[in-house]
Amino acid sequence: MKLDGGTGEVLWSQHYASEGAENESVYGLTLDAAGDVIVTGRMFETGREDELVTIKFANTDGQLLWESKEGGADRMDDRALDVAVGTDNDPVVVGLVQNADGTANLMIVKYDGDNGGVLWAVSEPGLVNDLTGDGWVKVDAADDVIAVWKSWGGATSFDIRLVKYAGATGLVIWSQTYNHGGASADDPGDVLLAESGDVIVVGSTAGDYLTARFSGSVGSVIWATTYEGPQGWYDVANSVSLAPNGDILVTGFSDGTGTYWDVATLAYDPALGKQLWVERWDGMDNSTDEGRALVVNASSCLFVAGYTYGATSGMDQLVLAYQLPTTTGVSDAPAFRSVLTAYPNPFNPQVQLSFSMAEATTAQLIVRDLRGRAVVTLHDGPMAAGARQLFWDGRDDLGRELPAGLYLAELRTPTGASTRKLVLAR
Fold this sequence. Notes:
Blueprint: E1 2-3, E2 10-12, E3 25-31, E4 37-45, E5 49-57, E6 64-70, E7 79-85, E8 91-98, E9 104-111, E10 118-127, E11 135-139, E12 145-152, E13 158-165, E14 172-178, E15 186-193, E16 199-205, E17 208-214, E18 221-227, E19 235-242, E20 248-256, E21 260-268, E22 275-281, E23 289-296, E24 301-310, E25 314-323, E26 341-343, E27 351-357, E28 361-368, E29 374-383, E30 386-392, E31 405-413, E32 416-424
Antiparallel strand pairs: 1-2, 3-4, 4-5, 5-6, 7-8, 8-9, 9-10, 11-12, 12-13, 13-14, 15-16, 16-17, 17-18, 19-20, 20-21, 21-22, 23-24, 24-25, 26-27, 27-30, 28-29, 28-31, 31-32
């Protein structure tokens, strides 16, 4: 669908389906020099299951210009993950290709922008075969191709793989496997190219924001830095962009002191990786808030988009606006006097949740899943002063056993909130 930038009026829309009523999805979108629209994703084909599909639509009226499908030799469910186009106007796509042994490869395909013909294709082993299918592609000023994906390193857990290919031939120029430290899981969340051609990767490492800069010419690490929220728990960077002055801007979610997940947006010096500032935003209900994307306009206004979780409204769309350079931010809430603890943790079949009330008040103790939804309310009402213990047996409000995994216990009083991660083992 194309909308008028001034009025939001629909200029044209395009509905495109494969041969049957099968699942089809778009995972990547870009524009070429003519403004024509290139989308990529997955599409079913008889005898081949889901394939990487790339489709080009005319900018003027949405007319289909070409379609191209690629897939793995084992004909399993494959899908494209990202698309980029360079100055040569030839799009490059990366996608997940499943193998019969349960592993996955990253397929990189370069197409002729005029007709969709394959110019070259490369398959790289070691892509993590999960629902996220983390993989990105960028094209630099010389039309060389940089692919980034999440790989499994065994003793080093998840690692970040970067490979640069010659745009004309697909031959490898350099490759890099990045592990921040030991067995810490390094999970990429977004990628961009600086004007110099250097590669900026953000994500998480050992539960902290990760931001790393790699040389575009040789692939070496120029610098890498982390950010840990005030609570010292789980922090994940989801998106990266550049400020007009070249500063690196990052957003995601970060555990706050008594505020659960907050939108944490940071700026880094591009040359040294030094943190310049951090803006933290917490919604009115002190619940789940997450930055998913960010962009800067010509007036140096930074927009952060994501969601905020309301106690009564559920998951709501969120857009924050900051004027660069930032001058104010949301400070962390003061430490909540009633700190919630959990033992044993991980637990099965029962966990003890302990806290102390300085004075008689009302209190609420809720266990939520990772989407912020309440699964069980352990207490909601008046509570006397003193030490308190409540127990949870891994069941929801209807008495049903919940699956193993990560949950969050949340204690609220009129003066603040405290949260604790719970790991339910089965």
